[in-house]
Amino acid sequence: MSPELSFEIALHGFLLWASMGFLMPVGILLIRMSNREECGRRLKVLFHFHVILQVLSVLLATTGAVLSIKNFDNAFNNNHQRIGLALYGLIWVQALIGFCRPQRGSKGRSLWYFAHWVFGTGLSALGIINIYTGLQAYHKRTSRSTRLWSILFTAEVSFIAFLYLFQDKWDYMQKQGVILGNEPIIPTDQEISPTPRDNRKEMNVPC
């Protein structure tokens, strides 16, 4: 393998990691966080960041696709190339769905939200899977170890998934008193009412 081809393969991998493995999951995390926001200004900031990250993700994925089609031998005889071909089409479908967002409260809003959520979640998961298949294909092509990159990518995905699940339960944890907020924990009726033994003691106390 020539140094030029090796560089192009590495560049292709970096572009698709930045697109599918970083920008897209972070964009999904941001829009998920916006569901907890009541402040209109912060809600708009999170939404605009979501849009910017997803647009950058589409552009980087398209650049990686053009690089692959132009310089690589694409026989589509392995899972990485087949999944990648599907991703190149789906990511543009998702972008078009995103730009066709109906106004909140309109009839088609619920259907649009469901389609956008299903496409976005599925696309992100498929992109992450294809990064792993890409690392395997790179190892077979170059005989170079990709163990370190696999470990680092797994750690990154796990951290983003943890943040996604944690922020979803943040309000619930605060209400349960696991994380103390500004409101005091109100004791339950069982904690307030005296026990039968306490009642007997009160009755035996002389006047």
From TrEMBL:
Record carries keyword Cytoplasm: no
Q: Which residues form the Cytochrome b561 domain?
A: 1-174
Main location per the UniProt record:
membrane
Protein name, please?
Answer: Cytochrome b561 domain-containing protein
Compartments, as annotated in UniProt: Membrane
Its keywords, alphabetically, are: Electron transport, Heme, Iron, Membrane, Metal-binding, Transmembrane, Transmembrane helix, Transport
Membrane topology per the entry is: Multi-pass membrane protein
Q: Which InterPro entries match?
A: CYB561D1/2 (IPR045150), Cyt_b561/ferric_Rdtase_TM (IPR006593)
Top-rank taxon: Eukaryota
State which residue ranges cross the membrane: 14-33, 45-69, 81-99, 111-135, 147-166
Q: Which PROSITE patterns match?
A: CYTOCHROME_B561
